[in-house]
Amino acid sequence: MKTLIDIDDYQINIRGSTGVLTVGKPGSGKSVLVSYLMLKLMSVGAYPLIFDTKRSDFYSLKDSSINSDQVCATPNQVAKTLRILTELMNRRYENHQGNWGNDWVDYNLRPIVVVFDEFSATLSEADKPTANEIISYLKQIIFKARQMGGIYLLLASQRLTADVLERNISSEFSTRIGMQNLDRISLNLAFPGCDLDEIPIVENIPGHGLIYDDHFNTMIPQPFIAPDMSEVDVPKVVKHLNQKFRQNNFSPESYWPW
């Protein structure tokens, strides 16, 4: 299966990757870019899970032939789905140990794309036990899913602080993106280990941003322009792709929860 995704002049590889961390203010083009990445992943058969506790655009995808349990609108629903996802990941490791070094692509396991829109807003809405549960499961997925999980996280947030996302977690994302001009705290967490004074200045225009990927030959994030999605009917494409892959050629998994 195709595991490379084009973003402007760059390519990111979902194989061996945790996902994409995207930070940007409202109106920066953050959600548009996440929509593009979600559709690219769904086009190769990825099963979508949507977390949108603000009940905005991504929440409306519940009407696009996506099962109701694929779209989470409350912190409790998010925590429950992350628990199920963690259990699936662990089952995949337990059931695919025969060939040293093989990963989910070699075993033809169906990838899963998790769209976590406005991560910080979800945590602020959750009570402390639920927020801790969300972070705990998220850590397990981020640290373990690269080889056998086949789980790709698209985590978006308006602003990053160490209270919202620990540096050791944010640095685990294989691809990190900042849309438009970010404050220094968000830049420092999105691009850890990078001298902020060396970071290029991008135009403060929606869709313009900075991208870093583990496969780049530099630690400095690079300017890019997100794909134009103005002519794309996202709900219509989601509906089409969801129906297309209801029957698929991925390896059967008796423990598949959905």
Tell me the strand percentage band.
15-25%
Mean pLDDT: 92
Major sheet attributes: 8 strands, mixed
Instruction: Measure the end-to-end span.
Output: 22 Å
Give the SSE map:
Blueprint: E1 4-7, E2 10-13, E3 19-23, H1 30-42, E4 47-51, E5 71-72, H2 75-95, E6 112-116, H3 119-125, H4 128-144, E7 151-157, H5 167-170, E8 175-179, H6 184-190, E9 208-213, E10 222-225, H7 234-244
Parallel strand pairs: 3-7, 3-8, 4-5, 4-6, 6-7
Antiparallel strand pairs: 1-2, 8-9, 9-10
GO cellular component, one term: membrane
Membrane topology: Multi-pass membrane protein
Keywords: ATP-binding, Chromosome partition, Nucleotide-binding
Can you put this structure into words, describing what you see?
With 258 residues, the chain is an alpha/beta fold. The chain has one domain (9-244): P-loop containing nucleotide triphosphate hydrolases (Rossmann fold, 3-Layer(aba) Sandwich), CATH 3.40.50.300. The protein has helices at residues 30-42, 75-95, 119-125, 128-144, 167-170, 184-190, 234-244; strands at residues 4-7, 10-13, 19-23, 47-51, 71-72, 112-116, 151-157, 175-179, 208-213, 222-225. Strands 5-4-6-7-3-8-9-10 form an 8-stranded mixed β-sheet, sandwiched between helices. It has a two-stranded antiparallel ribbon with strand order 1-2. Helix 2 (75-95) runs parallel beside helix 4 (128-144). It is globular and about 50 Å long. The mean pLDDT is 92.
